[in-house]
Every structure is written in structure tokens, then in C-alpha cells.
Specification:
Elements: H1 8-17, H2 37-43, H3 45-49, H4 67-79, E1 83-87, H5 90-102, E2 108-112, H6 117-126, E3 129-133, E4 137-138, E5 143-144, H7 149-158, E6 162-168, E7 175-176, H8 179-188, E8 193-196, E9 220-223, H9 225-228, E10 236-240, H10 248-257, H11 265-301, E11 307-309, E12 321-322, E13 326-330, H12 338-349, E14 355-356, E15 360-364, H13 371-388, H14 412-417, E16 420-424, E17 437-440, E18 444-447, H15 455-467, E19 470-472, E20 481-485
Parallel strand pairs: 2-3, 2-6, 6-8, 8-9
Antiparallel strand pairs: 1-10, 4-5, 7-12, 9-10, 11-13, 13-15, 14-15, 16-20, 17-18, 17-19
Helix pairs in contact: 1-4, 1-11, 4-11, 5-6, 5-10, 7-8, 11-13, 12-13
Length: 488
């Protein structure tokens, strides 16, 4: 019997939340009366009534399987997993749990160098040691693509005692690695493959989209449900494939360690509802959205100075497939950076985009994007570019220094927890970083705890800040000082 049209957690939460039970438990807003009037007006009593605590009979405790357990089971079924966990601290929580489960104190893992910062943060928690593998790099556009199977093979040969391999697919730009090839390499080396598919929770739910990583041989997969398919911000899922390469008992313990004891019922309900919509109506919704996106691409490609990037990159290093829901615009022909075009678009039309870099802007399209909105943004971009284009000017792209591909000097945990000296950035060359610093967007770490700082890395970080990026993780947002491991 197909149970995908049901949403057991959402239904149970609504039934309990709206029945008028006495509330002599947390939270203190009591479903509305105790909330600040402005918040109550903004959210409404219906939302506040559903903000219930854990351990409510008939929702997440009581006769087995509970609605909560059924909801996770249905998500596993939809994604083809043996086990799925709902996450209320995003894919970040999943990376922390995976690091604790697969990279215990002193253990080594091979990890893609441009993995999300939360993976290295997880290794700080676990005491594991990363051995990095560099992704393929598009020097023209300044984009990091996926890890190639041969590069992963070499990294695993350099690290024969690795416990797991971590890769990212798709990238922020929607470019997909050869996951099947990487899975074959990892399994030949005797290790599980973990795929950060945070940006592809919709993969596998329409024939014109890339397949999901689980179906391509990955052993554990993270999907940020909130990014594309309609759950609330901060909600995500962690999936484990059948086959036994991941110890689900150990991973379950790790998930418990890094979650709150007061998880949000609203986030859980949104995950349950998003899974239902994706499983039941996803293909139809995506079909209409893909048609609208295709029309938007044609419109944007006609704008002088703008080049629409996408399918033509498939087959280039590190790009085995692409996500058509990511609209990547090369704006260099306008004589402006992506930061400048995005800023002008925001001020003129109140349009917020997902990502800007020196060379590009990325427009993120959701599961059921409005064709009208896509048509409108095409016109907004056209008018903005007409106004700010600098004729005859094309910008060069800053490439990250080769030092971003170097191995760690000490374990991230040792650097993060060790005694630190706060020094001027120019005096930090040759010292070991205690900080994780990434330029936002796109959030890829340029410097990690345990890495030796080079002049090239400092110059790169300064350049991207000058170009308009923000530094995430830096103790000094002006990047004049930095914490380094004490030599005393």
C-alpha cells in the first residue's frame, strides 16, 4: 500500500495542537497567550498552537510506530534509504553527526577540500583528521566543481587508513560530480562514500533532473530539504543506504548528541509535509517549474553582457551532470562583478539572489517557482544591466591559491582547542590557524583550523573581501588579526 500521500507527524501535531488541551508544560507562550503581541500577530495563534514540546503521547511517544517514526520511515522510503533522520539544525547537524560516527578521535577521513565548513567543525568535535582531495576547478568562472574519481582514488591511496570518503554533489552552482564513479572508487578502497547533497534534495524526483546520490551508490547522503523542496529554514534530512557500510546504531547515537532536547515540532512537521508533496506531486510541480526556468534562461541569455551557464559544462572536469533549477549567470561582460550587479538589482528592484561572486550570480529556483516571478526577474536583470554596464570592460577572476589544496599541519581539534595567540594577519604567515574562515558567499573555507597560513591565502581572503565577500568564522571581521596556535 502506498502511504506517501499521508503525513503522519503533521496530522498528529495538528490534531493535538488544535484540540484545546491544557498546557501546563513548555513553551511558555502557551500556544499564543504568552507570546509578545507583535509576534503573535505576525505568526498567528495557529502556528503558535503547533509549537509543541517533545514527548507528547500520540505524536512522538506511545504505541509503536509513533507518527514521528512513521514520518521518518516514509522519508526513507521516498529517498530509497534504509534509515532517515529528520534534522532540525540543517545539514550542519548531519555533518557533525557523520564526523562523530565515522571519524572518532585520531581516525582519518578523505574529504573534499571545499566541503561545507560544518564538516571540519564536526572533525573538531570528533578529533578526526581530514586528508583533503581537491575538486576540479573552473579557472575561467572561478567555480569549484566536483571531485573526480581518479582524484579520489589518489587521495585514498595516500591515506590507506581512511575510514570514509566525503564529497559534495551538487555544488552551490548546481554542478554534479560523478557520484557513481566515486562510489566505485571508495568501495574498492573499503570505505563508505558520504555525499553532501544539501543542494539537491529534489534529485531523483523528475526524469530531467540528476539521480539521487543513494541510487548512484552513496552510503550516506545529506539533503537540505529547506533549500529547494519547501520545508522550513533549518530543516534537513540524513539518509543511510542499505548495505551495512554505515553503522546506523553508532550514527544514531551521534545524531542524538548533536541535537537539541527541545527540537522544533514545526520543523519536523514541515519535513513531513515537504516529503509528502515531493513524493506525491513533485514530478508534476517540477515539470512546470522546469518549463518556466527554460523560458527564463532564454530571456536572460538575450541580455547583452550576460552569459547563462549550465548544461554546456557537462563533460568538463568535475561536472558529470547539472541542476537546471540553478540559474548561473556569468556577468563579466557587463564590466561589473557579480557582487555589484546583485547589489544594483537589490537596490533597484528589491530582488535578493542566492549567491554572487566576482564572475557570477546564482538565482536559486524552488520546487514550485512562479513562472510570473521568473519572467519578472529576467526583466529586472535586463534593466539593471543596461543601467550599469561598463562598455569594453571585462573582469578577471581571482583563483584561490594552491595552498587551499594542502594537507593539515595538525588535527583541527588540536588547533581549535589549543592555546592561541592573536597576531596581526601579516605576522601570521607560517603559523597554524586556529580559525575556520570562509568567504560568504559562497561559504567555502579558505582557511581551516590546523592549516599552516600562507601569504597567498591571506592575499586571497583580502581580495575577496575587497570584491564584496564577507568573512564567516573570522574572529576579526576586518581581517586585521587572526588567532594562531601558540608556539610557546
Amino acid at each position: 500500500m502506498n502511504e506517501q500521500p499521508s503525513a503522519p507527524y503533521l496530522d498528529a501535531l495538528v490534531a493535538h495542537g488544535f484540540r484545546g488541551s491544557g498546557r501546563f508544560h513548555v513553551p511558555g507562550h502557551k500556544g499564543g497567550p504568552g507570546a509578545d503581541p507583535a509576534l503573535r500577530y505576525a505568526l498567528g495563534d495557529r502556528a503558535l498552537a503547533l509549537d509543541l514540546p517533545q514527548d507528547i503521547e500520540g505524536i512522538d511517544i506511545g504505541p509503536k510506530p509513533t507518527p514521528y517514526e512513521r514520518a521518518e520511515h516514509l522519508a526513507a522510503e521516498a529517498y530509497g534509504a534504509e534509515r532517515t533522520w529528520f534534522l532540525t539544525n540543517g545539514a550542519t547537524q548531519g555533518n557533525h553527526a557523520l564526523a562523530l560516527a565515522l571519524a572518532p578521535l585520531g581516525a582519518k577521513v578523505v574529504a573534499q577540500r571545499n566541503s561545507h565548513a560544518s564538516l571540519v567543525d564536526g572533525l573538531v568535535l570528533s578529533g578526526g583528521m581530514p586528508s583533503f582531495v581537491a575538486p576540479a576547478y573552473d579557472h575561467d568562472l572561478g567555480m569549484a566543481n566536483g571531485v573526480q574519481p581518479d582524484a579520489l582514488r589518489e587521495a585514498l591511496e595516500r591515506t590507506p587508513d581512511a575510514r570514509a570518503a566525503f564529497i559534495v554533489s551538487p555544488t552551490y552552482y548546481g554542478m554534479c560530480a560523478d557520484v557513481a564513479g566515486c562510489a566505485e572508487v571508495a568501495h574498492a578502497a573499503g570505505v563508505p562514500l558520504v555525499v553532501d547533497q544539501a543542494w539537491g534534495p529534489h534529485f531523483g524526483f523528475h526524469p530531467d533532473l540528476p539521480a539521487g546520490a543513494l541510487s548512484e551508490g552513496a552510503d550516506a547522503v545529506l539533503t537540505s530539504t529547506h533549500k529547494i523542496v519547501g520545508s522550513l529554514t533549518q530543516s534537513a534530512m540524513l539518509h543511510v543506504a542499505p548495505g551495512g557500510r554505515i553503522d546506523t546504531g553508532r550514527l544514531a547515537r551521534a545524531v542524538r548528541i548533536v541535537r537539541s532536547t527541545s527540537q522544533s515540532a514545526l520543523l519536523f512537521a514541515s519535513l513531513d509535509a515537504a516529503r509528502r508533496q515531493l513524493a506525491v506531486h513533485g514530478e508534476a510541480l517540477l515539470h512546470e517549474t522546469l518549463r518556466a526556468v527554460a523560458a527564463a534562461r532564454v530571456k536572460l541569455a538575450s541580455v547583452p553582457g550576460i552569459k547563462v551557464v549550465g548544461e554546456e559544462l557537462v563533460g568538463t572536469p568535475g561536472v558529470a551532470n547539472w541542476d537546471p533549477l540553478r540559474i548561473v549567470l556569468d556577468v563579466r561582460g557587463t564590466g561589473n562583478t557579480g557582487y555589484e550587479v546583485a547589489d544594483a538589482l537589490r537596490h533597484a528592484y528589491d530582488v535578493q539572489i542566492e549567491l554572487a561572486t566576482q564572475a557570477t550570480m546564482v538565482l536559486l529556483v524552488g520546487l514550485a517557482e512562479s513562472a510570473v516571478a521568473l519572467e519578472r526577474v529576467g526583466g529586472d536583470v535586463e534593466e539593471t544591466v543596461k543601467r550599469i554596464t561598463k562598455p569594453g570592460s571585462t573582469l578577471a577572476v581571482l583563483a584561490p591559491p594552491a595552498s587551499l589544496e594542502q594537507q593539515m599541519a595538525v588535527a583541527p581539534r588540536d588547533a581549535f582547542l589549543g592555546e592561541a595567540d592573536l597576531v596581526a594577519v601579516d605576522d601570521a604567515v607560517g603559523r597554524i590557524s586556529c580559525e575556520s574562515i570562509a568567504g560568504y558567499p559562497p561559504g567555502i573555507p579558505a582557511l581551516l583550523p590546523g592549516e599552516r597560513i600562507t601569504a597567498a591565502t591571506i592575499a586571497y581572503l583580502r581580495d575577496i573581501v575587497t570584491a564584496g565577500a564577507r568573512l564567516h568564522g573570522a574572529s576579526d571581521p576586518t581581517f586585521r588579526t587572526i588567532n594562531v596556535l601558540s608556539e610557546g
